[in-house]
Specification:
single chain; alpha/beta; Nucleotidyltransferase, domain 5; 11 helices; 14 strands; globular
């Protein structure tokens, strides 16, 4: 076949992300779609078809990474990986490569049960490895909608302690805290409110999307899911949801009070991530030789952490050649999809000269 582009796919449990790269290794298209995979495989089919309609996908090679095998519609991770691969094969054809960690891309025909652990939830390694090619010493921090990855980069390599989700949770390299989908009650049981520390109601009244909507730091294109109560996604509606955590009724005249409350909740989340960053940064010598690379839809928080700790900050977008001129999305919002697309493009590079993969 004549290869015109490589499309990377990051198939999560809540979102589908995609990135297309041309034969000059420049990003040309990006997509981020809400995809509640826990509701069934039809959600993956729907989202894949939606993205494909907007992409110039003819004569493209597809490269897959995933975390969606974790959703509870699957009895086991093995079942999840196999079901996802079957679905993408039926929709995308057979020109598919699957990311299996450590720069390894496998054809569908090569995959057997021994590869499942290397395929499941490896998207973080793809994006961190791409960052490591540009940053000799530092941290890679991907702050997404649901989770945060914090990884050491040393000698242009990813120095991960854990590779499975279980190992990464133990090592503190995977933090289940995100910009939008995380419930506020999972971030803070106590908070400062009206000048004193108080217990908060442990009910799913609000998400961190409400916090960042009130602070004015949430981008609309990153805000894909319904509010906790299914209500409006405005600053006032978010403040009302946050007020329920305190038992204190919302009033417009108290707007400064609610902004301060949201800012305090933000700081609790920031401090959790910052503490893990500092633990890893303490292992380095000269701080000016160490950079913090931020990715994900919440990387503005990573930049703030780097500035507070007096480390140079590099945005993932700054290491990516992009010709994409679409909506509010950037390469850093879809970092794993961009990373696996790059791996596919590198694999194709030696054969692109004669238009054959």
């Amino acid at each position: 076949m004549n290869v015109e582009s490589v499309i990377g796919w990051d198939i999560g449990g809540a979102h589908l992300k995609a990135a297309a790269i041309n034969n000059k290794h420049a990003v040309t298209q990006l997509a981020l779609e809400p995809m509640p995979l826990w509701q069934g495989m039809d959600q993956l089919e729907k989202s894949l078809k939606t993205v494909l309609r907007g992409f110039a996908s003819q004569n493209a090679v597809h490269v897959i990474t995933m975390t969606g095998e974790l959703v509870d519609v699957f009895a086991t991770r093995d079942e999840g990986v196999q079901s996802i691969l079957q679905m993408v094969s039926s929709l995308l054809g057979h020109d598919i490569l699957v990311y299996a960690g450590q720069h390894t891309l496998l054809k569908l025909s090569e995959i057997d049960s021994s590869h499942i652990d290397r395929i499941a939830s490896m998207n973080w390694l793809a994006s961190a490895s791409l960052a490591a090619q540009h940053i000799e010493q530092g941290l890679f921090v991907d702050f997404g909608s649901t989770t945060t990855d914090v990884l050491a980069l040393k000698n242009s390599r990813v120095e991960a302690v854990g590779y499975t989700d279980y190992q990464r949770l133990i090592a503190g390299e995977l933090l289940y805290t995100g910009l939008t989908r995380t419930s506020v009650m999972a971030v803070a049981h106590q908070a400062r409110f009206k000048g004193q520390t108080m217990e908060l109601m442990t009910e799913h009244f609000a998400t961190m999307a409400d916090v960042y909507r009130v602070t004015g730091e949430l981008t609309e294109s990153h805000d894909c899911y319904a509010a906790a109560d299914g209500g409006a996604k405005t600053r006032e509606a978010s403040a009302i949801r946050l007020s329920r955590l305190t038992g204190y009724d919302f009033s417009e005249k108290d707007w400064t009070l609610w902004h301060d409350f949201a800012s305090g909740l933000k700081q609790i989340q920031l401090q959790k991530i910052k503490q893990k960053c500092l633990t890893l940064l303490d292992n380095y010598g000269d701080r000016q030789a160490v950079s913090v690379v931020g990715a994900g839809i919440g990387r503005f928080l990573v930049k703030q952490i780097a500035e507070q700790c007096d480390y140079p900050y590099i945005d993932f977008d700054d290491i990516i050649d992009s010709q994409y001129a679409g909506n509010e999305l950037t390469s850093a919002d879809c970092a794993p999809a961009v990373a696996v697309a790059y791996l596919g493009a590198i694999k194709a590079a030696s054969k692109w000269c004669n238009n054959r993969l």
